[in-house]
Amino acid sequence: MAYRQTEHTQSKKAGTRARILKEARLLVTDSGFSSLAVALVAKKSGIATGTIYRHFPSKAELVAEVFKHATEHELHAVTQASQVKAPAKERLNKAIETFAIRALQAPRLAYALIAEPVDPIVERERLSYRYAYAEAFEDLINDGIKANEFVEQNASTSAAALVGLLTEALVGPLAPHSDLTHSETIEEQLGERATLSTQDKHTLLSDITQLALRAVGCKD
């Protein structure tokens, strides 16, 4: 007779998996994917190291799942921000602004999601979510074209370019410094780039949103 898991067992497994992902994401938020040691995740989750591998066959698959979960959360926030009842220009502006603000609020996590070197399995996830962001922007650009707010263009190409614009504009301000000593903390390594003044953040956000609107041929 085949073994069938009880609801209690399934619930317990789901709870353990959720706890693993939570602790792993906290580590990435603090120190990037390079800090995601399986033994450390197990310790913080209050479980044995072997238990991790019952939920994730390899460290790469754990990292990929953390990446997927975190990126889905960010993508949802961006798409939600763009679904207000407003002209396409305002909706696109809000989507881009939301992306940038959330990145600046959690710089280490944002850098990990955008640019940190990762295993090929995670890089594939990164590429798929770049496509997902591009699809969201493409819908907004098409709405703007139909409303005569943006010039005629290939919305798919423009949307992909917007994703590149956003990531390239933010990767510098988010990136940890590479020329500091090993004794310095992550916070010290992030330095001024991660602690931009309120005015600097406003300037950066304004520069990015204005550039994005120019890129899609906003008519006003």
CATH superfamily: Tetracycline Repressor, domain 2
Distance between the termini: 70 Å
Shape: elongated
Q: Which structural class do the helices and strands define? A: mainly alpha
Measured by DSSP, the beta-strand proportion falls in under 5%
- Return the domain count: 1
Instruction: Give the total of beta strands.
Output: 0
Overall CATH class: Mainly Alpha
Mean pLDDT: 87
Per the CATH scheme, the topology name is Tetracycline Repressor, domain 2
In CATH, the architecture is Orthogonal Bundle
Series of H and E elements: HHHHHHHHHH
Q: State Rg.
A: 20 Å
Q: How would a textbook summarize the main sheet? A: none
Q: What is the number of helices?
A: 10
Query: Uncertain regions: pLDDT < 50 for 5+ in a row?
Result: 178-194
Estimate percent helicity: over 70%
What's the quick description here?
By secondary structure, the chain is an all-alpha fold. The protein has helices spanning 7-31, 38-45, 49-55, 59-81, 88-105, 107-114, 120-146, 155-174, 186-194, 198-215.
Report on the structure:
With 220 residues, this protein is mainly α. The protein has one domain (61-215): Tetracycline Repressor, domain 2, CATH 1.10.357. It contains ten helices and no strands.
Can you tag this structure with a few keywords?
220 residues, Tetracycline Repressor, domain 2, single chain, mainly alpha
Architecture blueprint of SSEs:
Layout: H1 7-31, H2 38-45, H3 49-55, H4 59-81, H5 88-105, H6 107-114, H7 120-146, H8 155-174, H9 186-194, H10 198-215
Helix pairs in contact: 1-2, 1-4, 1-6, 2-3, 4-5, 4-7, 5-6, 5-7, 5-8, 5-10, 6-8, 7-8
